[in-house]
Specification:
Helix content is 12%, strand content 32%. It has 753 residues and is mainly β. Among the domains are: 4-68 and 319-366, Macroglobulin (MG2) domain (Immunoglobulin-like, Sandwich), CATH 2.60.40.1930; 75-307, Jelly Rolls, CATH 2.60.120.200. A hairpin with a 7-residue loop joins β21 (262-265) and β22. α7 (485-491) packs across α9. The longest helix is centred in the middle third of the chain and has 13 residues, at 463-475. It is elongated and about 95 Å long.
Length: 753
């Protein structure tokens, strides 16, 4: 198991800025840290191997350390609510439980140190009230259990003076022979009843100051009233926009400010709350009718928040190492190498905490910069952050055609779900993880990590696959800048306008609207894109408007996905934009890179065979010194340059009519299959052994503005660059394209202005 791990406070940092590293030690009290430039992060012994360039930095040295923990789980905190006990009050809410197991707190004013206050919970699916005073607890429980994913109006009244409590549980929809309605009453004798001030919704205070016993499910329109009230009062109250009852203490309307982390109290005192760890907003409420699927059109139908005990935004660790980036440190991929053991050979006692140094923020300081930029796909890194779905997935071996292989990081993820999941995982209640943050340890975003898809010689995924390109650029002595997805989203076209060439990573899958618009503007003005991967510009994501380093995806009705959003919940809570595939929003990837996702499979990779368009004079520069018929029948990823995920030319989806199909892959297995958006009725021949559409296309096209696009249509392409000491046809083709793309001369065929 891992003995040291950490994360940075940002993935992108400019010269002159400061970056902080949070480090946790499972054992020992100190660690060593040193700054390195990442050249190659793939430890496959058949390839270049791990390559790091040591950097003389002020942060290098030994640091004290300790174990840091993560307090996962989302909740609402309303600190202004006065102490409700002693006194008489009633709490109402609509709830939609999704994991009614164990002890899950719905609302509480509780001091665990003193053992006093109240907690309204679901205990093994039954509504329960716990009262604490003088270190003693009393509990009142409804006999009937709630059903999963059904709406209930719940009520809880406490009258301290009379020592009485009442619970009510009323299903919104009644079913014959299903007994899920109920009520309970209790009386007690306690010398003193008291509760702390403040209110915690969907979580209970623990003695250590953390939060636990979280609720899994939706909560809509929670209200507090002074005095004892019947649930009929709530039935009318929850439908009103401006409740005016004299007894009203607070009423939180979650349909307001959905794009924020604020929970607005529309009651007389404005006891507004804050949402912690980003529960999912823009969720259908108890009154959703289906007449609107965009929460911006009828926000009153989207007054629910979905809380999860395993939500996480910010791990909240204390900084261990602080680094000020020198003005002369070149842009590129870097890592803080941290080590708590005596030997570099013990992978459990070292970590490489990655980040990127970007160009200066001040445009005046960018004079003389390289004309090549690598667009680091940090949205994809975040989307796959701590991808753990494969660990418990059934029949995964049949899908990939081999046994799963787990390393130390995978086992640590399995034992530590508080690290938070990827956008491919599901919460414990079965709902999809729609929000992913970088402010936490991301175990699969680090040098040395090998994908679960396989060990040496098979599949490599995301960051370490991208380091094959870093290594090749380093071998070719090509200077380049790095800009990240997050940079592009924030600064748009102005950030990239001066670059002649942009290189993608192997899997630039996730893009926001601002990112898409910026790249299209750059291409339309003569930019030259080298798309060195596949499955790019696939999913639309949204960044939070207030919080840094977090993205959201709503997996809608199409696309390769491990979960899909509920009907009516396809619009991002962060922005209100329709989520899903860019293709289904009318912006297929073909409009950006000339190619589009066509197939995937994870057994072995194949090769390309030269196509007739390779002999077109327009492509002569690409094949200079490359007479070969077969291209890329070698590589570190699956044994070939064409594999894992494949893109091809599709004119009907926006591939330009002047695009050249230079080569296409062939001989894929039956486990490499068409993606589901490519068919309606399932065809009998979706595997690569029978369907010639299952292929990666090597493609080139000039743009009307004198620029160009070159696409390889395969995640595995970069894994072949280093073969035979970088002397191979994949490397030569890539170098030929980059050399020509860097020239000032416009490409022929530019439209007249």
């Amino acid at each position: 198991m891992l003995k040291i791990l950490g994360y940075p406070d940002r993935y992108s940092v400019a010269p002159g800025e400061t970056i902080k590293f949070m480090v946790s030690l499972e054992e020992r009290a100190s660690f060593e840290a040193s700054l390195v430039r990442v050249v190659c992060g793939d430890c496959n012994p058949d390839g270049p191997g791990l390559k790091f360039r040591q950097i003389d930095a002020a942060c290098n040295g030994r640091y004290s350390g300790a174990r840091q923990t993560i307090d996962a789980g989302s909740y609402m905190n309303a600190p202004g609510v006065p102490a409700l006990l002693p006194g008489a009050f009633t709490f109402f809410a609509m709830i939609w439980p999704t994991l009614p197991e164990g002890d899950q707190t719905i609302v509480a004013q509780w001091d665990a140190t003193k053992g006093e206050g109240f907690r309204l919970s679901l205990i093994e699916g039954r509504l329960a009230l716990t009262i604490g005073a003088a270190g003693k607890e009393r509990r009142c429980v409804v006999d009937a259990a709630v059903l999963k994913r059904q709406w209930y109006a719940i009520g809880c009244s406490i009258d301290s003076a009379n020592g009485a409590a009442t619970l009510t549980q009323s299903p919104l929809q009644r079913y014959p022979f299903v007994d899920d309605a109920g009520a309970a009453r209790a009386a007690w004798t306690m010398a003193t009843l008291a509760s702390p001030s403040g209110l915690l919704l969907a979580g209970a205070r623990l003695a250590e100051g953390g939060v636990g016993l979280h609720f899994d499910g939706k909560i809509d329109r929670p209200c507090l009233l002074a005095g004892v009230h019947e649930i009929g009062v709530y039935h009318s109250l929850r439908s009103g926009d401006s409740p005016a009852l004299d007894s009203l203490i607070a009423c939180w309307d979650f349909s307001r400010a959905i794009e924020t982390v604020a929970a607005y109290d529309i009651g007389p005192s404005g006891f507004h709350g804050a949402l912690i760890n980003l529960p999912t907003r823009g969720m259908k409420g108890w009154n959703w009718t289906g007449e609107a699927h965009d929460w911006r059109r009828k926000p009153e139908h989207y007054g629910a928040i979905h809380f999860h005990h395993d939500d996480l935004y910010d791990a909240g660790w204390s900084p261990s190492v602080v680094l000020s980036i020198p003005d002369d440190l070149a842009s590129g991929p870097y890592a803080l190498h941290v080590r708590s053991g005596p030997s570099d050979e013990d992978a459990t006692r070292e970590d490489y905490i990655p980040f990127f140094v970007r160009p200066p923020r001040d445009p005046r300081k960018r004079v003389g910069r390289p004309k090549v930029a690598f667009l680091a796909p940090t949205c994809a890194y975040m989307a796959y952050a701590n991808h753990a779905e494969h660990i418990t997935a059934r029949e995964a071996e049949r899908t990939i055609g081999r046994l799963l292989q787990f390393g130390h990081s995978d086992l640590y993820m399995y034992d530590h779900p508080e690290l938070g999941g990827s956008l491919y995982d599901s919460h414990a209640d079965g709902s999809g993880v729609a929000i992913s943050s970088r402010l936490r340890p991301v175990l699969n975003f680090s040098s040395r990590y090998h994908s679960w898809l396989g060990g040496h010689g098979s599949a490599l995924w995301q960051y370490n696959a991208d380091t094959h390109l870093f290594d090749w650029l380093d071998h070719q002595a090509i200077e380049y800048d790095v800009v990240t997805d997050e940079d592009l989203h924030a600064e748009g076209y102005d950030l990239i306008k001066d670059y002649r060439v942009i290189l993608t990573g192997t899997h630039p899958e996730y893009h926001s609207t601002a990112m898409w618009d910026a790249m299209k503007a750059w291409l339309d003005r003569g930019g030259r894109l080298m798309y060195l991967g596949a499955n790019g510009w696939y999913w639309r994501i949204a960044f939070h408007k207030e919080l840094p380093g977090v993205i959201e995806v709503r997996r809608a009705e199409d696309g390769i996905r491990t979960w899909e959003a509920e009907p009516g919940e396809y619009h991002h809570g962060f922005t209100g934009e329709l989520g899903g595939l860019w293709r289904r929003i009318g912006r297929p990837p073909n409009l950006i890179c000339g190619l589009g996702f066509i197939a995937q499979g994870f057994d072995v990779c194949s090769y390309y065979r030269r196509a007739p368009d390779a002999d077109n004079p327009r492509a002569a520069f690409i094949f200079e010194g490359v007479p070969d018929e077969v291209i890329g029948d070698f590589g570190l990823i699956g044994g070939g340059a064409a594999g894992l995920e494949l893109d091809c030319i599709t004119r009907g989806l926006g591939s330009p009519p002047n695009i050249l199909r230079l080569a296409s892959s062939e001989n894929h297995s039956a486990l490499v299959m068409l993606v589901n958006e490519e068919f309606g009725v399932v065809p009998a021949n979706i595997g690569g052994d029978q369907n010639d559409r299952v292929r990666a296309d090597l493609a080139f096209a000039e743009t009307p503005s004198g620029g160009a696009i070159f696409g390889v249509g395969s995640i595995a392409w970069c894994g072949s660059l280093s073969h035979n000491n970088y002397d191979n046809n994949v490397s030569r083709i890539t170098a030929n394209v980059l050399r020509r793309f860097l020239q000032d001369e416009p490409f022929e065929g530019a439209a007249e202005k």
